Amino acid sequence: MPAGRVAAVKARVGARGFSAYVSAAVERQLQRDLLEELLQAKEDEIGRPSPEVLDRAAEIFQEAEALAADERRAEATEGDEGAAWPDRKAG
């Protein structure tokens, strides 16, 4: 792992939390990989979604991203010292 990423993680969670943070990140990536495999298998089975479905899915993701950005801004104005993302400890 690049030294800059190691330093960024340690700055966020401390040296003692590094392993748990990395473990949680690996778990999320494994889940994403498995989801991608499932989606590919379903696409192979029933075909690609229609352009309308893909467009609607893109709209939904944009709406979700906007809501998440609004929440981050609200948390930042509530005394989170302007952090772009809330400081959450990996579990």
Give a description of the structure:
With 91 residues, the protein is mainly alpha-helical. It folds into 2 domains: 1-47; 49-83. The chain has helices at 3-13, 18-46, 51-77. The longest helix has 29 residues, at 18-46. It starts with a helix and ends in a 14-residue tail after the last helix.
Summary?
Residues 68-91 are annotated as: Disordered. Helix content is 74%, strand content 0%. It has helices spanning 3-13, 18-46, 51-77.
Tell how many strands the DSSP assignment holds.
Answer: 0
> What is the rounded distance between the termini?
21 Å
What series of H and E elements makes up the topology?
HHH
Q: Which bin fits the share of residues in helices?
A: over 70%
Structural class of the helix and strand makeup? mainly alpha
Which regions contain 5 or more consecutive residues with pLDDT less than 50? none
Portion in strands: under 5%
Largest sheet: none
Rough shape? Answer: flat
Region (Disordered): 68-91
Protein name: CopG family transcriptional regulator
